[in-house]
Amino acid sequence: MSDDTTQNEVKQLGKVGVLFGGRSAEREISIMSGTGVLNALKSKGVDAHAFDPAERSFGELAAEKFDRVFIALHGRFGEDGSLQGALEQLGIPYTGSGVMASSIAMDKIFTKKIWLSHGLITPKYAVLTPETELRLVPDDLGLPLIVKPPHEGSTIGITKVNGYSEMNDAYTLAAQFDDEVLAEEFITGRELTVTILGTGAQARALPIIEIVAPQGNYDYQNKYFTNDTKYLCPAPLDIALTAEIQDMAVEAYRALNCEGWARVDVLLRASDSKPFLIEINTSPGMTGHSLVPMAARATGMSYEDLCLEILKTARLKMSKGSKQ
């Protein structure tokens, strides 16, 4: 591709807003992601501008007259369909999944129901409410088990429960973030993640990453602020198992009607190498420690080229003949 062709393509992208920050519990990570994306797009010659929905109104967003936006928000009010709905109303094409897919993917309980209806494998679970007899949950799911808020990411509010006496504290922590709480069977094994790029039949999986965290604890600190976690990319898996997990991740992505890009987290059970779907992130991290750029690099795609490819997929989803 010639430089002239590249410059013409960049010019056609028009004025671009990079949305980051926001009001969710993941604001700090979103600022890191968005700053990286903004700088990458600018380095490619894109007319890119920062926009923080926590500090500026939707009226100001409309007044900016962006031709498209790159969503680098994580969590509530950015990844959950609410922002996507506002952008549809404003007629501003955006990256990532549409209103419904974003909303479903943000809800780990609803996501599990959809996956199970498609015959996909995910750990056994229970929905906890204030009326739930917490002491009975381990009898059903076994120990250890995981308790987490179903609408948060970045391991926020999550607890590994090793004994009956820990259930109350785990529930109390997760309930600070959600009215309902998710309890999930604990899968002992290898932690994997699969980046998906594209939409529909064109959706493709990038190389699988295996995450090897200190003492198996891939928490908020080890995700973003230390260099102690090791990442193996491509993951050391045989060819057949690699293909099986990639196909499963793409199927999980399509089952929710996701678009543009996402990251699917998988656990590979140690006892029998059986993969289990854990969750899907429709606006994954793009920080220096993030996994999507790492998977892209394994294919020879730079961070800057990745950001540009994602930006080019920005569109409205809810009407035919939508502005591109």
TrEMBL record:
<dbReference type="InterPro" id="IPR011127">
    <property type="entry name" value="Dala_Dala_lig_N"/>
</dbReference>
<feature type="active site">
    <location>
        <position position="290"/>
    </location>
</feature>
<dbReference type="GO" id="GO:0071555">
    <property type="term" value="P:cell wall organization"/>
</dbReference>
<keyword id="KW-0460">Magnesium</keyword>
<keyword id="KW-0963">Cytoplasm</keyword>
<dbReference type="GO" id="GO:0008716">
    <property type="term" value="F:D-alanine-D-alanine ligase activity"/>
</dbReference>
<feature type="domain" description="ATP-grasp">
    <location>
        <begin position="112"/>
        <end position="312"/>
    </location>
</feature>
<dbReference type="GO" id="GO:0008360">
    <property type="term" value="P:regulation of cell shape"/>
</dbReference>
<dbReference type="InterPro" id="IPR016185">
    <property type="entry name" value="PreATP-grasp_dom_sf"/>
</dbReference>
<feature type="binding site">
    <location>
        <position position="279"/>
    </location>
    <ligand>
        <name>Mg(2+) 1</name>
    </ligand>
</feature>
<dbReference type="InterPro" id="IPR000291">
    <property type="entry name" value="D-Ala_lig_Van_CS"/>
</dbReference>
<dbReference type="InterPro" id="IPR005905">
    <property type="entry name" value="D_ala_D_ala"/>
</dbReference>
<comment type="pathway">
    <text>Cell wall biogenesis; peptidoglycan biosynthesis.</text>
</comment>
<comment type="function">
    <text>Cell wall formation.</text>
</comment>
<feature type="binding site">
    <location>
        <position position="281"/>
    </location>
    <ligand>
        <name>Mg(2+) 2</name>
    </ligand>
</feature>
<feature type="active site">
    <location>
        <position position="154"/>
    </location>
</feature>
<dbReference type="GO" id="GO:0005524">
    <property type="term" value="F:ATP binding"/>
</dbReference>
<keyword id="KW-0133">Cell shape</keyword>
<dbReference type="GO" id="GO:0046872">
    <property type="term" value="F:metal ion binding"/>
</dbReference>
<feature type="active site">
    <location>
        <position position="26"/>
    </location>
</feature>
<keyword id="KW-0573">Peptidoglycan synthesis</keyword>
<protein>
    <recommendedName>
        <fullName>D-alanine--D-alanine ligase</fullName>
        <ecNumber>6.3.2.4</ecNumber>
    </recommendedName>
</protein>
<keyword id="KW-0961">Cell wall biogenesis/degradation</keyword>
<feature type="binding site">
    <location>
        <position position="265"/>
    </location>
    <ligand>
        <name>Mg(2+) 1</name>
    </ligand>
</feature>
<keyword id="KW-0436">Ligase</keyword>
<dbReference type="InterPro" id="IPR011095">
    <property type="entry name" value="Dala_Dala_lig_C"/>
</dbReference>
<dbReference type="InterPro" id="IPR013815">
    <property type="entry name" value="ATP_grasp_subdomain_1"/>
</dbReference>
<dbReference type="InterPro" id="IPR011761">
    <property type="entry name" value="ATP-grasp"/>
</dbReference>
<keyword id="KW-0067">ATP-binding</keyword>
<dbReference type="Pfam" id="PF01820">
    <property type="entry name" value="Dala_Dala_lig_N"/>
</dbReference>
<keyword id="KW-0464">Manganese</keyword>
<keyword id="KW-0547">Nucleotide-binding</keyword>
<dbReference type="GO" id="GO:0009252">
    <property type="term" value="P:peptidoglycan biosynthetic process"/>
</dbReference>
<keyword id="KW-0479">Metal-binding</keyword>
<dbReference type="GO" id="GO:0005829">
    <property type="term" value="C:cytosol"/>
</dbReference>
<comment type="similarity">
    <text>Belongs to the D-alanine--D-alanine ligase family.</text>
</comment>
<dbReference type="Pfam" id="PF07478">
    <property type="entry name" value="Dala_Dala_lig_C"/>
</dbReference>
<feature type="binding site">
    <location>
        <position position="279"/>
    </location>
    <ligand>
        <name>Mg(2+) 2</name>
    </ligand>
</feature>
